[in-house]
Design goal:
24% of the residues lie in helices and 43% in strands. It has 143 residues and is an alpha+beta fold. It has a 6-stranded mixed β-sheet with strand order 2-1-6-5-4-3.
Length: 143
């Protein structure tokens, strides 16, 4: 362990901007709702309104770590029979919302997709005044 490791307290000053105003929070809530809608109906016409073109998704599937690009995930959704088309109950919840700045946030959500339940950590960035997911970490809770 380094001997000269220095730990500094970070002081909040007047120069630090407010993390999120009401409009910022409201618009991110709407973006989370779009994510939930896409997970339920798999309508790919809205994919680019939810995910940034550079998004990466990480999680374990079948015991192995997966890393998917936007295109790979788009293809997965295209092949998936949507929970809506199966008449599956819709279950989604926003569990946590945390702002790093007015242009970056993190959400923790729970989503049911047919018989599977996921916990997703979504990193959001406000790009050209739109909240888009730039990173998704997913965990399959139950199948």
């Amino acid at each position: 362990m380094p001997q000269n490791l220095e730990i500094r307290a970070i002081e909040r000053s007047a120069a630090v901007p407010t993390l999120a105003d009401d409009e910022c929070v409201t618009s991110l809530h709407a973006a989370v709702r779009r994510y939930f809608d896409l997970m339920y109906d798999c309508d790919l016409s809205r994919f680019d309104d939810v995910f940034a073109a550079t998004v990466q998704l990480h999680g374990f599937r079948d015991g192995a770590m997966q890393c998917w690009s936007a295109q790979v995930y788009r293809d997965i959704l295209a092949k998936r029979q949507s929970p809506k088309s199966l008449g599956a109950p819709r279950e989604d919840a926003l569990l946590l919302l945390d702002f790093a700045s007015p242009t970056q946030a993190l959400s923790k959500v729970q989503v049911r997709i047919a018989a599977m339940r996921f916990i997703d950590y979504l990193t959001w960035h406000r790009i050209e005044n739109r909240w888009l997911i730039t990173s998704k970490g997913f965990h399959l809770v139950a199948a």
